[in-house]
Amino acid sequence: MTNHWVDIKNADLILIMGGNAAEAHTCGFKWVQEAKHGRRAKLVVVDPRFTRSAAVADYYAPIRAGTDIAFLAGVINYLLEHDKLQHEYVKAYTNAAFLIDPGYGFEDGLFTGYNAEKRSYDKATWRYQMGEDGFAMVDETLQDPNCVFQLMKKHFARYDADTVSSITGTPKDAFLKVCEMIAECAAPDRVMTILYALGWTQHSVGSQNIRTMAMIQLLLGNMGMAGGGINALRGHANVQGVTDMCPFTANLPGYLSAPTERDVDVQTYVSSRTPKAIRPNQMNFPQNFPKWWVSLMKAWYGDAATADNGWAYDWLPKPDGAYDVLAMFERMHQGRMNGFFCQGFNPLASVAHKGKVSAALSKLKYLVVIDPLATDTSEFWKNHGEFNDVDPRQIQTEVFRLPAELFAEHDGTFTNSGRVIQWHWKAADGPGETRGDLEIIAQLYTRLKAMYAKDGGALPDPVLNLTWPYRQPTKPSSDEVLREINGRALRDLTDANGNVLVKAGDQLAGFAQLRDDGSTACGNWIYSGCYSQAGNLTQRRDNADPSGLGQTLNWGFAWPANRRIIYNRASCDPSGKPWDAKRTLLRWTGTAWAGNDIPDMRPNAAPEENVGPFIMTQEGVARLFAPGMAEGPFPEHYEPFETPLGKNPMHPDKPQVTSNPAARVYKGDMELFGKADEFPYVATTYRLVEHFHFWSKYSKINAILQPEHFVEISEELAAEKGIRKGDMVKVRSNRGYLKAVAVVTKRIPVLTVDGRKVHTVGIPLHYGFKGETKPGFITNTLTPFVGDANSQTPEYKAFLVNIEKA
Amino acid sequence: MIRNPRDLQRYTASERANHWVVGICFILLGLSGLAFFHPAFFPLVHLFGGGVWARILHPWIGVVMALFFLIMFFRFARLNLMGAADWDWLSKVRKMVDGDDHDMPEQGKYNGGQKLLFWGLTLSMVLITVSGVVMWRSWFDFPVELVRLAVVVHAAAAAFMIGLIFVHVYAAIWTRGTIRAMLYGTVTRAWAKQHHRGWYRQITGKN
Amino acid sequence: MALQSLDIARRSATTTEAPQVRNTTEVAKLIDVSACIGCKACQAACMEWNDIRPEVGNNVGIYDNPQDLDDKTWTLMRFSEVEENGKLEWLIRKDGCMHCADPGCLKACPSPGAIIQYSNGIVDFHQENCIGCGYCVTGCPFNVPRISKADSKAYKCSLCSDRVAVGQAPACAKACPTGAIKFGAKEDMVHYAQSRITDLKERGYQNAGLYDPQGVGGTHVVYVLQHADKPSLYAGLPADPQISPLVSLWKGVAKPLAMVALGATALGSLFHYVMKGPNEVSKELEEEMEKEDAK
Question: What ipTM goes with this model?
Fold first, then answer.
């Protein structure tokens, strides 16, 4: 979330799309109700199903799964056509005025630079025209045909309401109604928030789904505003924390880009990640990369990381390719992986294409499952009848189950969707032989280290030199780890005049104190400040809210810098006055920025300096044209890899662009994509409020509340197939089948797409062969093994199936 | 024990036993039923070991009573068919109650009042039994609307039946020499001739 | 779930006055159906607080689970898909005891103190006094009480009288994440409901209203309904619930009438005997028979 949970109450319009907040984020949804009841806000839900969110919405519009870009591009077109923009905001705070390389183009669904063989783009032309002063060129009048604004207009003009309705299946009047409601928020004192979740990310165009929405929020001037922003609702109390601490091999903690094979030495690595400002006076905050990275290396390797050895750069792994979740299982499937540690993860159930995952796990020598529960994955080798029909004699993988404590059984922190880090205290002892995750990892580490020390090895240094400063080396405390994450001064830190700012050994007050000379250590720069000399700020529980906007700055600690709403400088006009006085987050006092949040701006940056509010970009403004994206600087509608249409209606004659041309598809998986003639129905998977992932099925109460696997179909499809409610049905995709109970409902709309009828089959995901719920199939038996081109998140939300009475 | 060998046998041992089974059941059911019917009588449940036991026992006793009443019904139904003389008797019942039986028409084994009582009890038993089954939650699950009707019918029929039994018992007490018929089976010839002359004649062949 | 610290205003099978000196605030639970998302947190909280766990059932093609109230399911979300004004609506009603001001269950109950009504309005079952007759089931116009197969006692929502007694809201209200369940003084709840109804009317629900049926004297669980003119849309919520006239008859006028009638019969018999004397065999007949015997 750019904003935070409580802030939802400040919205005038709440759009839920690509998510189902009422169902999947039930507690946070209270703030939607607060907005509705407190300030008469309207709630709009756009979804392939009439969800529990839709049940309390003011307006619901159906949409075909996997066509969100078409819908949102249509909204952009509507806003541009009807001139419903917050002009001053767009001009001052986005790259609308920037001139793009004349070589850039878009034709037949492809941007310039496409390489069909590699399924990727050479982005050489996706760049700004640079002036001789070294800065990007702009046209303040927005008239230059090569300026972003004009290119954007041209790009989106193709998404008129009829086209959108034909692609998405959303009735035209419903689409226009949503457009109208959104367009009202172009006024500076009307703000829309968007709540989305995995309904947007789990597509082969997931990142672009979100980006399209970000563009809308920029055009409406809603970024940085209280009650606005782009709000990803995370699926777990601490998924945000996991992401922040680096669950992905492409990142180091704090979203620092990890080295790759191409980064031959530390200079190449650091310089390629330290950008230069491309507009005058911009903060270009990522220029501080060396400070963050060196401090991280000092936290990891302490005295062993020196300027002379490039801060131990050589000890960092340089992956030979992708190691995202799909790539990992692909490697495993190819037999290129021996062992797998599975901590708090149930991939047999939660990764796409269970058949492939199961085959992949079968090729391992060993599998270690660290989990509070006996997960389905830990029994992937065991025959559970039709639900998991494997032959244990054929599987040689040795499986170790290490029972772990639940979160309530040790101290630690949660970082919620709103980036608020909150300490939680141990509530009970774990049962039996369970151990905390920290202890399990520490036990493994200390043993490995001893073995390396004794026997040596190919490269023992990264293990032997690791800083391990914990009082009990086999049982670090959460407190110690959080202190380490926050960072401390290794030497006295002095200002230019030699005055000591921070004494050696003291905890740092924030990332502004980080240095690139090895005098500071910090485990995660964005968390810096959460455990300062003032103590563990994540333990704060003061809910005082002086502004009434829900800005409880003394509750926990929000990264970065305890800032609750990021880009909050954009809540003021260029002169430093709030766009909407009732939503004042900041104002320029004449000498400094101050208000109800920590300014996302250099505190003394006077408005006249024209320092842009989007401090994380080189240009200081937000990008309507975003060359960082894998499949194009502007979003384009591509069909899911399994499409009921067999073509991209935007480019019907170009099979190459039917689906995301930049998405990675492995050999063998392309052939497994189902075609509409055999699998005519669009399937989408989702969560139910009664369950949490594959976890709560082990809990009796949750099992009582939603006991058995089911699928949802419309009354029309049911009648066609002779299926009655409560019947057992068989759902097949080209990768497998499952059986579940049919829920026949009015809530699954039948859509008219491209002149034909499209039916949807809804499949909840929580069930499996282990737990208190009725034993069942794993939903991801059906899903395709392909992911988003940028994040590689699998496409769980749109694929093809057939259905029949079992 | 034989009092007078010339006394008339009115009921066989089997008939008497049957009657008293029904009678005892009735008393138990009445006590427990009244306890459920009106708070004033609730303490009666303690005769049965408390409210729950009373609730458990009441329907089972009801089953026993219904069965034995059914047997009794088959024993006595034919004898209780109403005739012209019975209606005549009934039309003069006021005088009878007043203590003057001189003008009462001659009666067979049962008089009109007894016969009417018999049919009244039979009707009550049918209603009580059927409604009782509908109310018996331990075994049956009828629609609540039906159960609501059943509880009213059960209560009304039971109250009616209790009233009839009061009359029945009082009549037995009031008419001296009657109770022994149900205790040891015989009545005196004088009693028979006075109250059931037709029956007396039929049995003794005398006038 | 007896907690005797609360004043008892009414008690089943009791004909005398209850203590009524203290002035207790009437409480109510407000269920704003328009704000309910059917998350079943209330069901979970109810199970947790009251330590009840029904069986893990099956899916029978609907979202309602368990499918009905039972001795271990005291509250339940009931889902109804309706089309009103050409618009699909998913109405989700939390079902359970309504805590009637004039409780039919209490009226029907034959066992003194098995059902009581606290002076704050909560109607509670005291299982230790319950004899398991099921009369409460016939008395309830909302079809709520259930007789346990295990112990033959009647069970239903207690409105967490044990929590309320110590100043806590019922578990369901406490757990409700969207504020759809509120708990407080009935007066306050009705007042709050009015603001919700105004809001709903502004959003186009012209017939939004409060469900506080007067046929049972009002209830201490009240609903805000989008379509208060059609309560039956909400999984058959009765439009005008009343204690069945049969039950009223049975537990009303029938009781004293029958008692009077039976008493009169008994007394009438006694006085008849006293006044008219026994019906004895006549002297002549006795002598006649004695003569016969002497032969």
Answer: 0.93
User: Domain extents for chain A?
Assistant: 6-112+128-232, 325-410+429-462, 655-805
Same domain? For C163 and C226 the reply is yes
Closest CB from C35, C59, C202 relative to A707: C59
Q: What is the pLDDT of residues C145-193, one digit of tens each?
A: 999 999 999 999 999 999 998 899 999 999 999 999 999 999 999 999 9
Task: Report in angstroms the alpha-carbon separations of A428 from A405, A431, A789, A790, B207.
Answer: 10, 9, 43, 41, 99
**What is the three-class DSSP state of A504?**
coil
pLDDT at B78 over 80: yes
Q: Which of A30, A725, A747 comes nearest C61 by C-beta?
A: A725
φ, ψ (nearest 5 deg) of residue C126: -105, 100
Output the CA torsion sign for B80, B85, B90, B95: negative
Instruction: Looking at the structure, tell me whether residues C147 and C237 fall in a common domain.
Output: yes
Answer yes or no: is B89 within a domain.
Answer: yes
- What residues of B are labeled active site? 168
**Is C56 touching A (CB cutoff 8 A)?**
yes
End-to-end Cα separation, chain C, in angstroms: 80
State the chains in contact with A (3 or more Cβ–Cβ pairs under 8 Å): C
- Residue B166 sits in which domain range? 9-204
Is some CB atom of chain A closer than 8 A to the CB atom of C89? Answer: yes
Is there a domain that residue B199 lies in?
yes
CATH number of the domain to which B196 belongs = 1.20.950.20
Mean pLDDT, 10 residues at a time, chain A of 806 residues? 97 98 95 95 98 97 98 98 98 98 97 96 97 96 97 98 98 98 98 97 97 98 98 92 88 95 96 96 97 98 97 94 94 96 94 97 98 96 97 97 96 97 97 96 97 94 96 97 98 95 97 97 98 98 96 97 98 97 96 97 96 97 97 98 97 96 92 95 97 95 97 98 97 97 98 97 96 96 95 95 96
B3 found inside a domain? no
Would C207 be classed as within a structural domain?
A: yes
Q: What is the DSSP letter of A465?
A: T
Helix (H, G, I), strand (E, B) or coil at A114: strand
pLDDT value for C197:
97
Report which secondary-structure segment, H or E, holds A174: helix A172-183
Per the structure, the complete domain to which residue C19 belongs is given by 8-250
Domain A6-112+128-232 has CATH 3.30.2350.10: no
Q: Report C:13-52 residues touching B (Cβ under 8 A).
A: 13-15
Residue A501: closest CA among A599, A598, A491: A491
CATH T-level topology, domain A325-410+429-462: Rossmann fold (3.40.50)
CB distance C272–B152 less than 8 Å?
no
Q: According to the CATH classification, is domain A655-805 in 3.90.870.30?
A: no
